[in-house]
Specification:
40% helix, alpha/beta, Helicase, Ruva Protein, domain 3, seven-stranded mixed beta sheet, 18% strand, two-stranded antiparallel sheet, 293 residues, Rossmann fold
Length: 293
């Protein structure tokens, strides 16, 4: 069976040659050519025949084939229209596939899921283009579509940022956002030779299991994320100066200093020192003290 997989390097080359396919740099196309990695992704995402899977960027169908064999239904969204006839050919054996030629950032995902999954939670699986990883993941979370998990291949450095701890160089706004919406787990590191063409950097498979089980109640989600953005847009500055300088916020220094004192934080504290729970408390206390949003 190994020889029949699209991800077998010989088969990938044969498909690319058959269609005279030219890689589009603007779409960040790097196709997986390692079946062991694909099996690891399927296992990490815990795909079963009960699942509807949303795949972003199926390419020539390397991972889509594995998803179709393991899931109940696969909705694959591909931006590159030149890949659609290739996918229709390579995946013609699978009746549990819906192919959509759209930009995932512009697609009404909720509507698609209503049509194909009665709006039940979906598992997202993707080998994401590195240049657009963060907007795609944050878009999925912020739209509050019904999600069970997101299992994605990303640049290793980005996976480390999602999974970082406070007071480290990798810790930042992305870390806090991912940890607010999900529980991250790095399932595998993947070297460049598992792709065609080879990327210049290492990759990692990360699973983000969605959660709203927090030890805090947030008064205003958007306000907390304004604080987070302000804190890390000027991460070398103290929180007092970073928040006071933010065009998104309107908080005077005295209020910020008073809130930090209430939270038993030093006036010299920086954003990278605060946990998600502390950012939530910071946001709630600022709203209580000033009414500012």
């Amino acid at each position: 069976m190994e020889n029949n997989y699209i991800a077998n390097p010989k088969n990938t080359i044969a498909i690319l040659n058959k269609y005279n396919f030219i890689f589009q740099k603007r779409f960040g196309q790097n196709f997986l050519i390692d079946t062991h990695v694909l099996n690891k992704i399927i296992a990490s995402a815990n795909i079963t025949k009960e699942d509807v899977v949303l795949e972003i960027g199926p390419g020539i169908g390397s991972m889509t084939q594995f998803l179709c064999e393991n899931a109940g239904h696969v909705i694959a969204v591909e931006i590159d229209k030149s890949l659609i006839p290739i996918l229709q050919d390579t995946l013609s054996d699978y009746s549990n596939l819906t192919l959509i030629n759209e930009d995932i950032l512009k697609l009404d995902i909720e509507n698609v899921l209503k049509e194909h999954n009665c709006n039940k939670p979906v598992k997202v699986v993707a080998n994401l283009p590195y240049y657009i990883t963060t907007p795609i993941i944050m878009g999925l979370f912020e739209q509050h579509i019904p999600l069970e998990s997101i299992t994605v291949m990303v640049q290793k450095e980005v996976a480390e940022r999602m999974n970082a701890k406070p007071k480290t160089k990798d810790y930042g706004a992305l870390t806090l956002a991912v940890n607010y919406y999900s529980v991250p787990y790095i399932a595998a590191n993947v070297p460049p030779n598992c792709f065609m063409p080879r990327p210049n950097v290492g990759s990692a498979v990360i699973r983000l299991t969605t959660t709203d089980n927090h030890p805090f109640v947030l008064k205003d989600e958007s306000h907390m994320f304004k604080l987070v953005r302000a804190a890390f847009n000027q991460r070398r500055k103290t929180l007092v100066n970073a928040l006071n300088n933010s065009p998104e916020l309107n908080i005077d220094k005295d209020t910020i200093l008073a809130v930090l004192e209430d939270m038993k934080l030093k006036p010299t504290a920086r954003g990278e020192e605060l946990s998600l729970e502390q950012f939530a408390a910071l946001s709630n206390t600022i709203i209580e003290k000033s009414g500012h949003k």
